[in-house]
């Protein structure tokens, strides 16, 4: 495998793993589960979506009439709503029981899809050279550490390149998270507005 192809493959895997850690694997799994609920051809899920759609229609009809003027019709729609709520609750309980195994499978897949290729690259390409360092740039022990464990001395090996890339991606995500958090902080109150509010209360 060419060094640039190996580098791109490893970079993709590291970015994928960093995004999982940054956004939270549980959050990603939950999003996948919600997408599955929305687009799945599972008969239970289709039935649940049908009940929910019917409930929305009944609620619209119920809210459009007055219980005083059309008490009989309103009562009938109210009973229908209660009936649908019970069906939805029972069906959601069944589906939630199956969601545990679904989420477990997705969790394993997310782990394996990162670790299996990464182990392959680390073992199979442990002697691969990402790039060579010019002579006499670093002391011997630094060159040795950069080539660790199996690359020729004077080169940067895959293991050390993975470490450097991981640190770089982690740094970018940390900066992004810090900037996002600072933007979400409450803006300070204008002192002039605060003084006006105090003077109003005194009056």
TrEMBL record:
The keyword Signal applies. One of its GO terms (molecular function) is protein-membrane adaptor activity. It is a multi-pass membrane protein. It is found in: Endoplasmic reticulum membrane; Golgi apparatus membrane. One of its GO terms (cellular component) is endoplasmic reticulum membrane. Residues 1-21 form the signal peptide. Gene3D superfamilies: Helix hairpin bin (1.10.287.660). Its main location: endoplasmic reticulum. InterPro entries: Get1, Get1_fungi, Helix_hairpin_bin_sf. Keywords: Coiled coil, Endoplasmic reticulum, ER-Golgi transport, Golgi apparatus, Membrane, Signal, Transmembrane, Transmembrane helix, Transport. Residues 74-101 form a coiled coil. One of its GO terms (biological process) is vesicle-mediated transport. Residues 173-203 are cytoplasmic. Residues 1-6 are lumenal. PANTHER family: GUIDED ENTRY OF TAIL-ANCHORED PROTEINS FACTOR 1, TAIL-ANCHORED PROTEIN INSERTION RECEPTOR WRB. Belongs to the WRB/GET1 family. Component of the Golgi to ER traffic (GET) complex, which is composed of GET1, GET2 and GET3. Within the complex, GET1 and GET2 form a heterotetramer which is stabilized by phosphatidylinositol binding and which binds to the GET3 homodimer. Required for the post-translational delivery of tail-anchored (TA) proteins to the endoplasmic reticulum. Together with GET2, acts as a membrane receptor for soluble GET3, which recognizes and selectively binds the transmembrane domain of TA proteins in the cytosol. The GET complex cooperates with the HDEL receptor ERD2 to mediate the ATP-dependent retrieval of resident ER proteins that contain a C-terminal H-D-E-L retention signal from the Golgi to the ER. This is Golgi to ER traffic protein 1. It comes from Wickerhamomyces ciferrii (strain ATCC 14091 / BCRC 22168 / CBS 111 / JCM 3599 / NBRC 0793 / NRRL Y-1031 F-60-10) (Yeast).
């Amino acid at each position: 495998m060419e060094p640039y192809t190996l580098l791109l493959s490893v970079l993709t895997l590291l970015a994928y793993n960093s995004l999982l850690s940054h956004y939270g694997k549980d959050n990603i799994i939950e999003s996948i589960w919600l997408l599955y609920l929305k687009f799945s051809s599972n008969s239970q899920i289709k039935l649940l979506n049908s009940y929910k759609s019917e409930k929305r229609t009944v609620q619209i009809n119920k809210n459009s009439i007055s219980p005083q003027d059309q008490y009989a019709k309103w009562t009938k729609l109210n009973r229908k709503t209660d009936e649908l709520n019970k069906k939805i609750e029972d069906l959601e309980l069944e589906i939630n029981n199956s969601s545990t195994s679904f989420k477990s499978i997705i969790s394993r897949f997310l782990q394996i899809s990162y670790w299996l290729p990464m182990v392959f690259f680390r073992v199979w390409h442990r002697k691969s050279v990402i790039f060579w360092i010019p002579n006499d740039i670093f002391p011997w022990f630094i060159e040795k550490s950069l080539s660790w464990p199996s690359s020729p001395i004077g080169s940067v090996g895959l293991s050390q390149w993975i470490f450097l890339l991981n640190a770089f991606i982690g740094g970018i995500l940390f900066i992004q998270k810090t900037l996002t958090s600072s933007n979400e902080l409450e803006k300070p109150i204008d002192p002039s507005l605060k003084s006006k509010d105090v003077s109003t209360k005194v009056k």
